[in-house]
Amino acid sequence: MNQNNQPPQFRKKSSAGKWILGLVCAGLIGGAAGYGGALLAQNTDSQQQSGVNITQGQSPISGRTEAVDVTDVVDAVRPTVVEITTESVSSGNSLFGQYVSQGAGSGVIMSSDGYIITNNHVVEGARTIAVRTADGSEYEAKLVGTDPSTDLAVIKVEAQNLQAATFGNSNDLKVGSVAIAIGNPLGSLGGTVTTGIISALDREIVIDNETMTLLQTDAAINPGNSGGGLFDASGNLIGIVNAKQSATGIEGLGFAIPISDAVDVLQELIEKGAVTSRPLLGVSLQEMKDGIYIMQVSQGGSADGAGLETGDRIVSFDGTEISSVAQLKQLLRKHKIGDTVTMEVERNGRQGTVDVQLKGQDQN
After folding, report:
1. Overall average pLDDT of the 180-188 stretch
2. 177-212 b/e with 16+ CB inside 10 Å = b?
3. Annotated catalytic residue: which of 113, 147, 151, 218?
4. Can you list the domains of the chain with their CATH numbers?
5. What is the pTM of this model?
6. Coil, helix or strand for 243?
7. Contact 287/206 with Cβ under 8 angstroms?
8. Quick one: which of 131, 183, 266, 316 has the fewest CB in 10 Å?
9. What is the mean pLDDT of the segment spanning 159-186?
10. Measured between alpha carbons, how far is 123 from 305 in angstroms, rounded to an integer?
């Protein structure tokens, strides 16, 4: 779709458990390491049971909907999903001082010349990234850009004529729409297909202090599926799988980043390597029992320019009392670079307000 390594133009269709980011990791000390069920409508005969009158009439769905066969769709889109394996070197408590950990995830080809979408948490900190396509071809990949706030990343392999996914419009989805997930569960089962429906739209989920608005699906999601594709019944890419909720008694709670929310981020990652259009407060924060504290202030950033200091406790932001880091980040995302917001902080037992002009990454 893209020639001479130019940024691709996206192909669009018209418009109480533990959060698991589905990455498979295995630490090695010192070593290298169908939606088969469519809605079935039934006409109910008038009957009386236990004194309760059963309403006679037609189902809201006229006639009978046959089970959806996704075979052709899967055959068409499976080549657009790849397996990703990574190696990272970490310092730890091993006898050798460092250890190599291996990870595995999934990705979706977004251009024929090798740009691939995945999750930030799949490639974060990776020393090497390897990609295996559906036809068995293997490539070394380089990191193009990553955005922890949206858990999106773009990697690149040197290849031509790859089959790229066709982007759908996740804004047009409805609860009950068919959802087809394709990925690399457990890091060793590449090309695995699971099916279900869109269970909910616009779920606000907090993961690692980031509030994300995600699609919810009951298609089976497992470690290693992260970065893989969620497709509709026409084979359009509608989401990037990134999380599931796991606990005893919990099933069918998988989540994906809506593709329509991801397009601008992906384009900026390709062009700049990072999202620079988003305002930054320019601080590192820590949640304590008695509030949210500034642990570090970036020189030249928004907070530094407003006179905020390490040790300040943030009481409110833009008129809203702050109770978590995730809440503060969510409020910050509602603003743009150049906006001025009022913050109330506590320093040495005294409270005061400061006006903070928000800067972007390039302005710090």
Report:
1. 85
2. bbbbbbbbbebeebbbbbbbbbbebeeebebeebbb
3. 151
4. 1-37+65-275 (2.40.10.120), 283-363 (2.30.42.10)
5. 0.72
6. strand
7. no
8. 316
9. 93
10. 33
CA atoms within 13 A on the CB side of 198: 24
Residue 202: active-site member: no
Lookup result for tokens 């460092």? 98
* pLDDT confidence of residue 266: 96
Query: What is the radius of gyration, based on Cα positions, of the chain?
Result: 24
- CA distances, 61 to each of 34, 57, 64, 70, 174 (Å): 21, 11, 7, 21, 16
What pLDDT was estimated at residue 27? 34
How far apart CA 287 and CA 299 sit, in angstroms, is: 22
Q: What is the mean pLDDT of residues 114-140?
A: 95
**Is there a catalytic annotation at residue 335?**
no
**Among the options 101, 111, 121, 260, which is catalytic?**
121
- With 60 as the cut, is the pLDDT of residue 189 above it? yes
81, two tokens:
């999903």
> Distance (Å, rounded) from C-alpha 264 to C-alpha 276?
12
What letter does residue 111 receive in the DSSP assignment?
Answer: S
Whether 31 has a pLDDT exceeding 60, the answer reads no
CA within 13 Å, CB half, 122: 41
132 with 106: CB under 8 angstroms?
A: no
Alpha helices by DSSP H, 202-344? 259-272, 302-305, 325-332
